[in-house]
Structure to design on (102 residues):
């Protein structure tokens, strides 16, 4: 039976890898000590690490996630709002200067 690493998603051949049993009885499979250390000792999330991201999310490495696309869109909206506010301020200054001149 071929298992998958609970952290990075790589396939683990029979007789290989590490089987970790938690106190609640749940099983966690690791392909090597690197994955075990990152998940259990350091508390890292696979989705935040490039080398582990492919298996954890189930997509090829290098493709953008829905989250990163949404983040980029939000950043663009924020930039547009900032630019609009800047334009609005400059227009307000211009009208104020014209009103003072009259």
């Amino acid at each position: 039976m071929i298992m998958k690493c609970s952290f990075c998603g790589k396939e683990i051949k029979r007789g290989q890898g590490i089987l970790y049993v938690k106190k609640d009885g749940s099983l966690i499979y690791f392909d090597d000590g690197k994955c075990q250390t990152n998940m259990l000792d350091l508390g890292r999330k696979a989705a935040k690490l490039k080398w582990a991201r492919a298996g954890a999310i189930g997509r090829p490495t290098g493709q953008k996630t829905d989250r990163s696309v949404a983040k980029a869109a939000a950043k663009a909206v924020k930039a547009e709002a900032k630019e609009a506010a800047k334009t609005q301020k400059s227009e307000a200054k211009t009208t104020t200067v014209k009103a003072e001149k009259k």
